[in-house]
Amino acid sequence: MVVLLTTLVVVLNIISAYSSSWEFDVPVLPGYPGPLPFKLQTGYVGVGDEDERQLFYYLIESEGDPVRDPLLFWFPGGPGVSGFYALVCEIGPLKFDYEAFDEDLPSLVANPYSWTKFASVLFIDAPAGAGFSYATSENGYAVSDTIAAEHNYMFLRKWLLSHPSFIRNRFYLAGDSYGGKTVALLASEIIKGNEAGLEPQIRFQGYMIGNPVVDEDKDHNEQTPFAHRMGLISDEYFEMAKSSCGGEYVNPDPNNVECKYALQLVKECIQHINPQHILEPKCREYPVIQRLDNSTFGSKEQRPINFLLLPKQERHFCRANGYVLSALWANNSTVREALHVREGTVGDWIEFNHSIPYEHNVASAFEHHRLLSKKGLHVLVYSGDHDLSIPYMSTLKWIHRLNISVDEQWRPWMVDGQVGGYTEKYMNKKVFLTFATIKGGGHTAPEYMPKECFAMADRWLSSYPL
Length: 466
Prior knowledge:
There is one protein chain. By secondary structure, this protein is α/β, with parallel strands linked by helices. The protein has three domains: about 15-205, 3-Layer(aba) Sandwich (Rossmann fold), CATH 3.40.50.1820; about 235-270, no CATH class; about 360-460, Rossmann fold (3-Layer(aba) Sandwich). It has helices at about 1-20, 85-90, 145-160, 180-195, 215-220, 225-230, 235-245, 255-270, 320-330, 335-340, 365-370, 390-400, 445-450, 450-460, and strands at about 20-25, 40-45, 55-60, 70-75, 95, 110, 120-125, 135, 145, 170-175, 205-210, 360, 375-385, 405-415, 420-425, 430-440. The strands form three sheets. Strands 1, 2, 3, 4, 7, 8, 10, 11, 13, 14, 15 and 16 form a twelve-stranded mixed sheet that branches. About 45% of the residues are buried.
């Protein structure tokens, strides 16, 4: 009888732990020499009707004044991208030492341009199936734009209730790429929840989105004009496409032979260009090799590639090569133990999980942004100006459709005496919107131009003009 009761208590404790918040302070990480110079916490929060989705997060407290500094809730795009990507490749306090890699566990170094210098940042692996997040059943992985927004709001409310000291902080949503949708939908949920009196009441100040997806068709439609503006296609080809396609380059009339021919010419001009950054190499598809521990990755999306085994002097630059270090690091057992990842819940960690059964049931987030523009929020929209995948021209188009008056005309903004990009400010009684380009930035801007993006975010969050 005693044994039975003891077993029952253990089972109930496990169920309780897995269905509620699960959090740990992480003072050290494999690959980083010595104690971490910032406060890192990892954990899980259950969402869904029965907490069947367990979402993993990384919280890094502000290295400045965590009591007074804002809290950012960051979404790295995707959907299906791990928040760890943003932590080490974009705005977090760590990055991998690519140059020093020598077939051992990748080493981590400090990022001098971490946004945690002036804000606490909450990174999330969402939805279930991204990063270390998981579901307790196969059906738990099925999700859509709208369901993901509901789960993200549930996560946020539960997380704040278990971290009451952050409820007083100014709160901002932030993200890039598909975050243009994710952030807009979650912002709408927060506004509705606050207006309905749901607890906790969130001190929602606004949001920032970079290289944002808002409406894929409209965003991608600007790729042809952008390619022409950047000198990738000739005046003749562009005028031919413009006149024959009537400005519709993504979904043209299938019976329009002239348009089809013009778009084929355009495609031939840009098919070998890296859409993430038009000046960087377009990586070839990599051959599969074994992990450094001689086992193999089960997922095709991200496998270590043979460049890691080449002598350093023979490694040709390709930005995607560095992403492999994330997979090598995150799939190391000592790393998972340090992060307090629940054993047996996730197989291979991959940066971008394409296999999640995700329904894109919100074709355009423009209407959400339009309604949010009436809620008195502060908004920052920024674009790397060398991004072909989501050109800054498409972002400016939907901003203009918001019909907000221009408060400050287009001008350069400076970092250390150099042009960091160009900015324009829009304002009415209900919204304060800043648009900024990041000169030389790609998709997404903080990865390519960290110093400039650091200065931009610091100034904007401090209500200081860019």
